[in-house]
Write a structure and sequence with these properties.
With 121 residues, the chain is mainly beta. It has a single domain, classed as predicted glycosyltransferase like domains (Thrombin, subunit H), CATH 2.40.10. The protein is built from 1 helix and 6 strands. The protein has a 6-stranded antiparallel beta barrel. The model has no long low-confidence stretch (mean pLDDT 91).
Length: 121
């Protein structure tokens, strides 16, 4: 199977807030963490409620409270694992700001990390 991704994804945990309307129209807000960050999408862990596939959501990365990044995304996939529910999102609006302030920051953060020292057992 050929890889379809056109850019790197970074396995990094940023705090996020996701807002959407459920199937009955009730406003929902859920706090979670990114699992991995791509240039056009993100996989997020949401501990309690998940939006429906196809739903549009407002996604805010709250890593830097003085400079939060908000974008609009659409749900493309759900992982309904009871122990670790996840939602995969593709960005609909705000891609440019996402790329600069989230994706590039994630890459720089990962690149700056030093490997763990080996323990001598």
């Amino acid at each position: 199977m050929q890889e379809r991704r056109q850019s790197d994804r970074f396995a990094i945990s940023f705090p996020v807030r996701v807002k959407w309307k459920d199937d009955s129209g009730k406003p929902m807000t859920e706090e979670g963490l990114t699992e991995n960050v791509g240039v056009n999408g993100v996989l997020i862990y949401l501990p309690r409620s998940l939006p429906s596939v196809g739903a549009k959501v407002d996604l805010t990365v709250t890593e830097n409270p003085k400079d939060e990044v908000s974008v609009t995304a659409q749900v493309i996939r759900l992982e309904r694992n009871a122990a670790h529910p996840q939602v995969a999102l593709t960005l609909v609006d705000g891609v440019r700001v996402w790329k600069k302030k989230v994706w590039e920051f994630a890459g720089a953060t990962i690149a700056a990390q030093k490997p763990d020292e080996l323990d001598d057992w």
